[in-house]
Amino acid sequence: MKIRSLAAAAFGTAVAFAATAQAQAPFADVGRQPPISILINSSPWFAGFEKTVELYEKQTGNKVALDVTPFGGMLEKARNAVRGANSPYDILNIDTQWTIEFYEGGTLTPFDEIDPAFALPREVLTYQDSNYWNAAKRWRTRDGGKLMGYSPNGNIHVLYYRGDLVKAAGLQPPKTWDDVAAICEKAGKPPEMYGFVTRGERGNGIRFDWMPFMIGAGADIVKAPADGDYTVTINSPAAKTALDRYVGLMKRCAPPNHGVLGQGDLIQLLSTGKALQGMAVIAAWPSFEDRTKSAVVGKMDAAPVPSFPGGKPGVVIGNWHFVVPKNLPAEKKKAALAFSRWFLTAGAQREYALGGGIPVRSDTFSSDLATRPEFRWMKAYGDSQPFARQELGFAEGAQVEQVLGLRLNQALIGELSTGKALNMAAAEIEELLKRNGRRTGRLANLPE
Amino acid sequence: MNRGLAERFDGTFRHWSLWPCLGVLVALSVYPVLQLVPMAFSTLEIVGGQQTWSFTPRRNLELLLGDAVLRDSISNTLVFVVVSVAFEMVLGLFCAIFIACMPRWRGTARTIMILPILLPPVAIGSMWKLMYNYDFGLFNQMLRAVGIAPANFLGSVDWSLMAVVAVDVWHWTPLVFLILFAAVESLPQDVLEAARIDGASMWQTIRLVILPLLGPALAVAALFRAIAAFKAFDQVYLLTSGGPGTSTELISLHLNRVFFEQNQLGYGAMLSLTVICMIAASLSAGRFAAAKR
Asked: Is B253:B240 a contact under the CB 8 Å cutoff?
């Protein structure tokens, strides 16, 4: 509750600064800089980023090389870059669950070491401070933490739904999971039109896409990691409610291959008009409005992630982080920071949004863009922010994701009951936390 | 150069000319494998920009023995190797004999046959993933066209491993064909002629003459394919990433997961060492069985 209030206050304050920021110079003058290279993932928001980089090159004359890499290769390229004598990249883009490894490894340069005067503009969203690192506390917080980077993309889930069809069926936009199920029942016509889709593939896909159910049901993976209490709570009755709901919806409304549905499949089903509702990251939006790729241009609407009856939406943050490796010459680090300063200006963020990116400045969401039909996702994104939270913000996050990614998938495909899957996950997570010397334990087993 | 010196040079040249190759082999193969040994008994971490090694053999061994996914990945790998190599050998042999017997167009048929080997595995994985797609894939469109319910090729625990095997068979049967086709082409014609004069039927000629003569080529093809199938990674990674559940999790995928996704370098090294030992034991057992026969 405290975290939610803080997040709401932070987002509100950031929006309040919007008017002031709009009056400031839209772009920063960063002068001539040496060429830089950026390791960036090929994602639905890449097109917007690429256009923004082109504008940077045009405005400043500075050169930026982009190494566009699929998600699967990003982590290894980033690791290899920071472990060598000289990083081939001046900016790395790392996913939120990888940040701890890089922060703890000491392989990145805190921004104040490049320029002690550098500060993020107040309007820039920090997604629960995942871009700060407090080494003594081993936790991502600005409280005693150093600024390690910033988000070029603040992915959160939203619920996409076919506004035209929901309206035609005389139904209201979905607010709860019960609404989603009701719309699926009434307006879904599989296999021509699946009622609801989200990712079910083993690994990061199912782990990330199940979390809105988990958070919404009031469940947690571990009790209070920020305070050092790593008691595993993933096998709680609330988590079982969340998993039962997720599995039930997928079995009733998604295609029969729900156990292997990945991000590409999900976007394909939604953009070809084969799915009525789908939960996906906000970065997927440009795919639905692109006339060359989508059959549903102007027909898709977005809403905050549904909640359980009487509850709040469970919004999990999956943001990326632009960071600067330690093994770089000083002038390259400065050039990376110069690009960052420019990229985070109101003008650049506006261009980023116009190009199809998801901006990370709150003033973009309160600008005139938000009233344009093509940016109708902005309201859902803004309304979700107060509930958004980070998960797996500890060193064992990657391993915990592997455990959950497998056991949740086994529950979805019917290899394990939901109770057994959560019990097994809890035992395995407890074991790996114990091995790392964490203060841990776990709840009593659920009925299997 | 006097004659004695030239002879001595010739005598030793074959020895010292090997040294550069040996150096490369030691640097790129032997040393990394040896390096795995201390790594397998340690925990490696990068803290404060420095790599730290701590000696933790018991921890890594416990991880190995308690790794439930490893057991699934070993059994999946064995099924994958046995089924895919068996199909590739049978189909490769059939195609080799059939095309060798063609009176015309042999060159064209051989060229068409080897096309799949020329394609990069990434392209093959993507292509087959599209063809297997439940809603939009070619196979299910064909099934729907003839009134059959679509099949859940990659999303079903019962089908997924065989769907992955089918792609491997499509990709690598041409290699077996190529090896066996060369062997069939070089079969002694007088022996085949003698079989024909003796009144052997086609089936008798294949079973009693051609197959025994092809024995060494068959063994080489089977060995090559078995080793490669044991290491299969790219296509499976693209098609299923080991899922659903652990139904297509092969050892190579599990190793990748431990090493690169979980960043457990020490345990990953122990897993690698275990796999190397398993392959070495299988090869030794095969050689021992062949020698006994």
From this structure: no
Domain limits, CATH 3.40.190.10, in chain A: 2-155+318-375, 157-316
Q: Which two tokens stand for residue B242?
A: 């080991």
pTM of the predicted model as reported, rounded to 2 decimal places: 0.88
According to DSSP H, which parts of chain B are helical?
Answer: 3-16, 19-25, 31-40, 57-65, 68-101, 106-113, 115-118, 121-132, 138-145, 160-185, 189-197, 202-205, 211-230, 234-239, 251-256, 265-292
- A260 to chain B: which residues are within 8 Å by CB? 154-155, 160, 240, 243-244
Determine the 3-state secondary structure of A230 from DSSP: strand
Question: Which has the closest alpha carbon to B160: B75, B99, B243?
Answer: B243
Judged by DSSP in three states, B276 sits in helix
Of the listed ranges A153-157, A348-352, B9-13, B204-208, the one predicted with least confidence: B9-13
| B42-47 and B50-55 strand pairing | antiparallel
Are B243 and A104 an interchain contact pair (Cβ–Cβ within 8 Å)?
no
Instruction: Out of 3.20.20.30, 3.50.30.10, 3.40.50.300, 3.40.190.10, select the CATH number for domain A157-316.
Output: 3.40.190.10
Please provide the distance, in angstroms rounded to a whole number, between the alpha carbons at the two ends of chain B. Answer: 52
Sole residue written with tokens 């079973």:
B207
Q: What is the rounded CA–CA span in Å between residue B225 and residue B119?
A: 17
Question: What pLDDT digit, counting tens, does each position of B105-120 carry?
Answer: 999 999 999 999 999 9
List the domain boundaries for chain B.
60-292
Instruction: Looking at the complex, report in whole angstroms how far the Cα of residue A295 sits from the nearest Cα belonging to chain B.
Output: 15
ipTM score for this prediction: 0.86
- Chain-centroid distance, C-alpha A417: 28
Question: In Å, how far is B243's CA from the nearest CA of chain A?
Answer: 6
Mutate: best of A202, A266, A435, partner B, most B CBs <10 A: A202
- Phi, psi values for residue A37, rounded to 5°: -125, 145
> Residue A201 in contact with residue A208, Cβ under 8 Å?
no
Q: Is the pLDDT of residue A12 over 90?
A: no
Helices and strands (H and E) in chain A: how many: 18, 15
Q: Is the Cβ of B129 closer than 8 Å to some Cβ of chain A?
A: no
The per-residue pLDDT for range A18-72, each reduced to its tens digit, is 444 444 568 999 999 999 999 999 988 899 999 999 999 999 999 999 999 998 8
CB A157 within 8 A of CB A149: no
Contacts of B234 (CB under 8 A, 6+ apart): B121, B122, B125
Residues of chain A with Cβ-Cβ distance to B50 below 8 Å are 106
| B125 and A CB contact within 8 Å | no
Those residues whose C-beta lies under 8 Å from the C-beta of residue A386, and which sit 6 or more positions away, are A4, A7, A8, A11
Distance between CA atoms of residues A224 and A231, nearest Å: 8
Half-sphere exposure (CA, 13 Å, Cβ side) for A154? 28
**Gap between the Cα atoms of A165 and A274, Å rounded:** 12
Kindly indicate whether the domain formed by B60-292 is annotated with CATH number 1.10.3720.10.
yes
Q: Please state which CATH class domain A2-155+318-375 belongs to.
A: alpha beta
Residues of chain B numbered 167-226 and touching chain A (CB < 8 Å): none
The DSSP bridge pattern shows strands A222-224 and A300-303 to be unpaired
The answer to whether A165 and A227 are in contact (CB under 8 A) is no
What residues of A are in contact with residue B60 (Cβ under 8 Å)?
none
Distance CA A12, CA A6 (A): 10
